[in-house]
Amino acid sequence: MTKCMNNPFQTKPTTIVNIKDETQDVRLFRLAGRVDFEHGQFMMVGIPGFGEAPFDICSDNRQKKYFEVCIRKVGGLTEKIFTLERGNKLWIRGPYGHSFPPLAKLPTKNLLMLGGGTGFITLRSIVREFIRDHRLGATDVQIYYGARDWSCLLFKDEYEEWRKRVKLELVLEKKEGDQACDLGLITDLFTIKPPKNKDLTVIMCGPPVMYKFVLQKIKALDVPDENIFLSMERRMFCGQGVCEHCGIGPKYVCKDGPVFTYAEAKLLPGAL
Length: 272
Description:
This protein is of the alpha/beta class. It folds into two domains: 85 residues, Translation factors (Elongation Factor Tu (Ef-tu), domain 3), CATH 2.40.30.10; 163 residues, Nucleotide-binding domain of ferredoxin-NADP reductase (FNR) module (Rossmann fold). Strands 10-9-8-7-11-12-15 form a seven-stranded mixed β-sheet. A six-stranded antiparallel β-sheet has the order 4-3-6-1-2-5. A two-stranded antiparallel sheet has the order 13-14. The protein starts with 11 loop residues before the first strand and ends in a 7-residue tail after the last helix.
């Protein structure tokens, strides 16, 4: 009898149970079914005939009935996904990737998270765990979130709930009226609203250009390289390290990352 082989590229269908507009070109899709994932991992999501792409899972990682991905409309596949409605199907595989450390096992109890642009999507699942699990109450959490303007901020209707458990600082490149935020770049928050605790663990997710300047600010706080965790999603395509699109030196972002410590990332040629 021929032994059945596991195909890592085999997809399965899931049903869209809810769609929510976050910005003009970003939507939050709630998909049926449980996915066991850790913070920072991603799913491959697609439509037969249109391809697939990696998207961060941004829901509570202990939710049993559904999971959520936030998708920005930037090309043919995502344009097609944006035509779908509740009850339609998407095809998924995963989750994949190396995650951030479990929140109960962070190197220090004081956590500083930084998100820039759509990179902030990845951090949502972490915030939702802090909201759900009050056993993590001894951990102090401060969040820096930078975006172009108010219309680009994600998950705005959740901020009131978040602020009951974490300290959320917003900074915009363009501010209008009396919006509840600061004006400038995310690096300006280190001066405007400096981290209130030492012995930090740092989690970052954003565009590569952000990392260069933010890392300078973080290293000035004497944070050890091993306590700085970076999500370095770039050029991921297959999720299995086969296509080699996401190669950085000897590493593949989709398999060895997307989360790396700064101690690891600084040794990879062209990573930062």
